[in-house]
Amino acid sequence: MTALPFILDRIRRSGPITVAEYMELALYHPEAGYYARAARRSGRHGDFFTSVDVGPVFGELLSVQLTEMWRLLGEPRDSFDLVEAGAGDGRLSRDILDHLAVSEPDCHKAVTLHLVERSPAARAEQVRTLGPHAAALASSGEELPGQASGVIFANELLDALPVHLFVMREDGLREVFIDAEGGRLVERERALSAPCLGVGIEWIGGRLQPGWRAEINLAALEWIGGAARALSRGFLLILDYGHEAAELYSPAHPAGSLRSLKGHTFAGDSSDGLPGETWLQEPGDRDITSDVDLTAVQRAAEQHGFETLCVVDQSYFLLGLGAADLLARSSGAGIIDVRRRMALKTLVLPGGLGSTHKVVAFGKGVGRPSLRGCSYRARVT
């Protein structure tokens, strides 16, 4: 079922809608939203690849960092809230718990797992996916738990949250709205839907030239605030693709980063003059994504009481957790070793997931510990 009828009905009833409203309907409408209708969208037979799709070694490496965080939290060590936001069907948490059960049984025993996921179809698969770890699952729902002490982590969540799209003109910022024209979707430029959009550009230090397009992800900043309220003490770990503001709002990205994806093929921004034929195609049947503004995320987190521990390329983060050692040990010719080596190379080699994806680690009430994954400090390409 496509989300187009629901979007057209909303436009007929209330007029042109913001891109954020369009994305909310296209991605999360309970009946026709892209993420709402399927338990899994990634992988070889899906529309995109994530680090989880590479294999369980990603979860294995993350478990090293999570174990260190568990130890840093100190007593009592028999209670450790592990909250995965945007958890899908629970594959990443399963991979983490698989490794903890073997290598760190005390940490595994302490875990109280919370899976946060908006898709009912994905939530319905979580217990089955977790398998022997299902007993650790304390909650599964759309919202972060009311109170947690431990780690909240999100892998490729913020990039899929609804954004506002705008364009700089000679007379100032104009926001892009979505309208209907003969049954198809088109763009319309209008005044900003909220004054905070213009303030946001100044706050993050972006400087746009006439004709440039860009996005502001207010939903991501609100999510950071929610994570701060939910986490009484511990760590926040965000893994996603994005850039610092100086890079994101620069000549390197004059058309912005908003795009849609289906069958591992991108439809880019609509500045090519074909509105309705590119990223507006097939709402509900395509993923829609934009690069995360790491500067805005960091500043929002710090405003809510977090301390930034590091901002690094995923490659450096995983190398700090021992990816190179795992690669050296996976030197056999057996099929399992070959797959493991291929997975590790995909995760860390330049040009792949390791350089496109960034890791931002925050602490709350834990001081400024030196985390293994932050060994390379601020190495961002």
Mind explaining what this structure looks like?
With 381 residues, this protein is α/β, with parallel strands linked by helices. The chain has two domains: 4-33 and 164-216 and 254-289, no CATH class; 51-160 and 221-245 and 291-374, 3-Layer(aba) Sandwich (Rossmann fold), CATH 3.40.50.12710. 36% of the residues lie in helices and 25% in strands. The protein has 16 helices and 16 strands. Strands 2, 3, 4, 5, 10, 14, 15 and 16 form an eight-stranded mixed β-sheet that branches. Strands 1, 6, 7, 8 and 9 form a five-stranded antiparallel β-sheet that branches. A three-stranded antiparallel β-sheet has the order 12-11-13. A hairpin with a 2-residue loop joins strand 11 and strand 12 (265-267). The radius of gyration is 21 Å and the shape is globular. The chain starts with a helix and ends in a 17-residue tail after the last strand. The model is unreliable at 269-277 (pLDDT under 50).
